[in-house]
Amino acid sequence: xxxxxxxxxxxxxxxxxxxxxxxxxxxxxxxxxxxxxxxxxxxxxxxxxxxxxxxxxxxxxxxxxxxxxxxxxxxxxxxxxxxxxxxxxxxxxxxxxxxxxxxxxxxxxxxxxxxxxxxxxxxxxxxxxxxxxxxxxxxxxxxxxxxxxxxxxxxxxxxxxxxxxxxxxxxxxxxxxxxxxxxxxxxxxxxxxxxxxxxxxxxxxxxxxxxxxxxxxxxxxxxxxxxxxxxxxxxxxxxxxxxxxxxxxxxxxxxxxxxxxxxxxxxxxxxxxxxxxxxxxxxxxxxxxxxxxxxxxxxxxxxxxxxxxxxx
Length: 312
Fold this sequence. Notes:
The chain is built from eight helices and 15 strands. It is an alpha/beta fold. The protein folds into two domains: 5-200, 3-Layer(aba) Sandwich (Rossmann fold), CATH 3.40.50.170; 209-302, Methionyl-tRNA Fmet Formyltransferase, Chain A, domain 2. It is elongated, with a radius of gyration of 22 Å.
């Protein structure tokens, strides 16, 4: 096998295990492309992206263009003379002018079992929909969103209480291993591509913050999946007497309906139980806005919330 020169496109923490797997492989990562550094935190301090930080630690040159179509970026990209481009959660759609540069094209680490959940938020949507399985697909990048032929897929189970963040961590590790295997096969000429069946394609649109609002008229199972799917961002929340309460960990409890949706059924000890449109939701961990996350027991010890109270 002749090692390939690879340029890696990625931005968030999800992409770091794939980059590190490539760096540890037989192939040569000649450059990394990441989104520009952004202000973060309360101080709005400019911080490098996780991928940039990992690349810099490894001594790999990093390009951070605001726009991918500029002559300056395209020239710098071409000067790296990549055999192959690898993309993992870069965060922008790659134009044709970028796709055409590597002689072997670009491939993508996508966090779903394609053709299901094409789009920006496949992990969150899978958890929010209550799926019990997801996975990683290594696919060829084409102009149409996440529609390219597939090189390999691997399934990963979603536990009933797993959050999107926990599922992402598992998929990131699997994606790195699977990606290197595919790159090896591309290098030695044994890679095979399977077209996606567009008839079974579904779309996973970007998560927006407003999706975090809890509607207590929905079933407890749906709310539990909403809480899991929106953790660690943007979180799911409710209000009590005008104060926002972020739900951190929940469990589906009693299936019976005993009160109006949003009514607190129990509020003592470790039991913070709320009526939903179908069944009850046990809040195991909660975070008052501006404070740390805490157990239900800690929360109830410091806040007068009684059975019969309403959350909205």
